[in-house]
Amino acid sequence: MELWFTEKHTENVTFSIKVDRQVxxxxxxxxxxxxxxxxxxxxxxxxxxxxxxxxxxxxIYHEMIVHVPMAVLPDVQKVLVIGGGDGGAVRELVxxxxxxxxxxxxxxxxxxxxxxxxxxxxxxxxxDPRVTIHYADGLKFxxxxxxxxxxxxxxxxxxxxxxxxxxxxxxxxNCYKALTDTGAMVNQHxxxxxxxDAVAMQRAHKRIIDSFPISRVYQAHIPTYPSGHWLFGFAxxxxxxxxxxxASGWKARGMKTKYYNDKIHVGAFALPNYVKDLLEEME
Amino acid sequence: MTHLSQERAPVLEALNRYKSMRxxxxxxxxxKRGKGNRELTEFLGExxxxxxxxxxxxxDNLCHPVSVIKEAEELAxxxxxxxxxxxxxxxxxxxxxxxxxxxxxxxxxxxxxxxVHRSAINALILSGAIPVYVNPGVNHELGISLGMSVADVEQxxxxxxxxxxxxxxxxxxxxxxxxxxxxTELAHQHNMLxxxxxxxxxxFYFGEGLPASAMSVGADMAAVSMHxxxxxxxxxxxxxxxxxxxxxxxxxxNLTQTTSGSYLLIxxxxxxxxxxxxxxxxIFEKVAKMAEYARAEINQIGGYYAYSRELINGDSVYxxxxxxxxxxxxxxxxxxxEVYDLLRxxxxxQIEFGDIGNILAYISIGDRILDLERLVSALSEIKRRYAKDxxxxxxxxxIRPQVVLGPQEAFYAESEPTxxxxxxxxxxxxxxxxYPPGIPILAPGxxxxxxxxxxxxxxxxxxxxxxxxxxxxVNRIQTVKE
Lengths: 283, 482
Prior knowledge:
Chain A: Keywords: Polyamine biosynthesis, Spermidine biosynthesis, Transferase. The complex is a heterodimer of chains A (about 280) and B (about 475). Chain A is α/β, with parallel strands linked by helices and about 280 residues long. Chain A contains 10 helices and 12 strands. In chain A, the strands form 2 sheets. A 7-stranded mixed β-sheet of chain A has the order 8-7-6-9-10-12-11, with helices on both faces. In chain A, strands 1-2-3-4-5 form a 5-stranded antiparallel β-sheet. The model of chain A has no long low-confidence stretch (mean pLDDT about 95). Chain B has 3 domains: about 270 residues, Aspartate Aminotransferase, domain 2, CATH 3.40.640.10; about 110 residues, Alpha-Beta Complex (Aspartate Aminotransferase, domain 1), CATH 3.90.1150.10; about 70 residues, Molybdopterin biosynthesis moea protein, domain 2 (Alpha-Beta Complex). In chain B, about 35% of the residues lie in helices and about 15% in strands.
């Protein structure tokens, strides 16, 4: 039997993974949710046919979206995670004892249910007592918040479908308002490689620099995302992601990670020239 | 003819039959089902081009319908509760003009509120009818024109017993309705026709808990923009008629309507009518709920006032369309037009219009709550980033027009371009309006007053898109030579 999951990375490029079996399929109010088992990548989650994560490489994304800001911001107590119903970001966050409260805002309850049941690798810490799950539109949730969070992690899907509102200027502005004076926002920033993704990436960058005084982009290598070259945004009111990086403090924690380390932290902000050009076009 | 059910769509069915016959076209349009214009076909899609066809026996003829268009019009009439429905392909503008031209000939009077759409006054230029304006009254807090009070209409009727018709906005752009039933009864007692501009009222015929539609209260004609809340293609519209001679109305329509009626527009009317007849009640319930939700959220931000049925006062606001999302912005220190521009330029959100004090976001079945969240969040951001003190904000007042000449006489009179600042006291020979909403500040035949000039200046400063004049910059206006 030949059963393949295929995602179109562009009109002319596809990415396929051989599927061993389908574990779950459901249609929520917002999207189609599928989980598959594969030999190469283990279990993987797709939404509307787009790859969200695989067991094999999700550590890269989740470590990079959490540890980078946590190694910069000095005293993070209250964190807001928008999207991220798979629980991967929360799993990394709960490793920090100083964090007292994590609000996870996910629009689609069915994603969380499916992940809790079928993806314990990422969803295993969603029951941590510090975590409160809110089933709501992130844009709406953050609108009424002011001066409340030390860190906001925008772990969104792509800028079309239910995640659309999380790439808008009004959303970034609302996040700015919801952060404390020393707070920062980290977001999934799309890819610079294929033109369609690059345009979304540029638009997001433009909107973030309009809203935050400090805005830097960093990268990671994620094999199952289009082109494998993925970006994150670090937008902040006070702290610079490299200049204020507390390398010794983070190392002293003795936290075991598979991708992130203090050298990667600094290196991730060093961008290829073509990416710099794309970003500078917007600045 | 046998009675068709509302589940049928005769024009759509005929087009599908026609397509399956694979007829070889040696008639217009020359693109021959798109084959002759590949770029256009790629852009619009082959399906679209294959039904861009000419009138012919199997597809009927809009100018003189005898088969499928006739059936489709009958179904529309039944769905809207009218004696007859005409499919219109030159926009609701042509429906409004046809109504006025059916009711009045040269020199005859028509009673109307001054806050009519330009198409109504255009009709006066074409027909030579003379307007008798009724002050629609203004809500001073919001700065919006309201409906006509019944007493004011009665006074106009008694002072002008020779008038032929009363034209009523049902509703206004902002969603305000007059007491159309009482006005209709009153007008009929004095042998006047009642014409309703229902450019924003299609949903009144299908939704529950909405203001009364013109046909339901016995009005004689109504111009209904199917392409607004009804979901059909832009420029397609309906003219509904109660009582008047169908043949005469069609003659009037054919004076100005194209003889090459677009089947894209005609079929969109047919399909949309079927959709509304079968599902309209549920559709507009959902639209009303979305509007109510957005209103509540916007009012929670503070500074903005999204108004609704609390405006109802039994007379000049006899009813209010709760599917409308109109918002007063002045307390944020921003003119509506400024918020309108910020939404588009800063947040990629296009709303229907902004005027001096208000914005209007058009909510329809095509909307999703997710998109409404964007609108609300953007308004919240605009307040956070741009809010100013309200001082110095001009509120919109009703400017009583001083009609010196009939619109037709003034429009065709010898006129000269006059710089705005020197036009005080002259008679205007053209329109000046902000578009949208397209309600004239000055109409042909009206005196240029200091109030009018101040208003035009302020609207320009705030970035309103002024139009109607020969001078595209609106620095000069045509004034009638005296």
